[in-house]
Amino acid sequence: SKSHLTYSARATTHANPLARRLFEVAEAKQSNVTVSADVTTTQELLDLADRLGPYIAVIKTHIDILSDFSEETITGLKSLAAKHNFLIFEDRKFIDIGNTVQKQYHQGTLRISEWSHIINCSVLPGEGIVEALAQTAQAPDFPYGSDRGLLILAEMTSKGSLATGAYTSASVDYARKYQSFVLGFVSTRALGEVESSVAPVKGEDFVVFTTGVNLSSKGDKLGQQYQTPQSAIGRGADFIIAGRGIYAAPDPVEAAKQYQQQGWEAYLARVGG
Ligand code: S5P
């Protein structure tokens, strides 16, 4: 993996424009934090995005948990992303046949393709899901150009996760095969060494997002398992995703700053800075 290189170096060499932008944002803001803003109203979401915006590289949404999703949600998120220079990652975890996910992504009530730079999918349905999402985003008439990318959910943090072994290997296969649209993985570690039936592509540089990051808890009562920013970044995370550790803290802004600082120090230690 390229995890020993700086974000700036990776921004210079990466073939994918959205990956380049992601690394540039991280470098410019000195933040590798993705906040998982799992709140349930538009006002709470936009309020968090505005207050935490300066300290994060990416905001991750679960747009379908909002009780009042509307045009205002989209307009608000887009304008805050521009104001604070962060990217938007809708954690929809597409998992269906190609024909269905194309509609879920590019049509429908939530209009995900319109506002979310990054999406993710499970490869449980097989290669076709990645092919279908890539086809939609790379169609000549797709309105958002090369400003969109996919993360493959290659592993999960929950206890007893079945996203292991052959599933994780297939995730790497498809990432290699659809490299022009796949930015990388949601995984608990770098996956370059994982057995894959597709040979590594020369110069490949998959971006690793690691969720289940929390400074003060080991897990929850529903099987979530946490690690610290240091541990996640040591295992190869390029971006750390924290939800309750930040938004449910007594002071979310202070918490965001703390994750930012620890995430950045762990990154600097990794690249030898
Ligand atoms: O394996 C995973 C993958 C994801 S995307 N485990 C996860 O927890 N997530 C998501 O990360 C989950 O849906 C939630 O939005 C966030 C973790 O939230 P937290 O409050 O436990 O930090």
TrEMBL record:
UniProt xrefs under InterPro entries: Aldolase_TIM, OMPdecase, OMPdecase_AS, OMPdeCOase_dom, RibuloseP-bd_barrel
UniProtKB keywords: Decarboxylase, Lyase, Pyrimidine biosynthesis
Top-rank taxon: Eukaryota
One Pfam short name: OMPdecase
GO biological process: 'de novo' pyrimidine nucleobase biosynthetic process; 'de novo' UMP biosynthetic process
Residues covered by the Orotidine 5'-phosphate decarboxylase domain: 32-259
Protein name (Swiss-Prot/TrEMBL): Orotidine 5'-phosphate decarboxylase
Residues bound to substrate: 38, 60, 157, 224, 243-244
One Gene Ontology term of the molecular function aspect: orotidine-5'-phosphate decarboxylase activity
SUPFAM superfamilies cross-referenced by the UniProt entry: Ribulose-phoshate binding barrel
Record-stated family: Belongs to the OMP decarboxylase family.
Record pathway: Pyrimidine metabolism; UMP biosynthesis via de novo pathway; UMP from orotate: step 2/2
PROSITE patterns: OMPDECASE (PS00156)
Recorded catalytic activity of this chain's protein: orotidine 5'-phosphate + H(+) = UMP + CO2
Residues of the active site: 91, 93, 96
Enzyme Commission number: 4.1.1.23
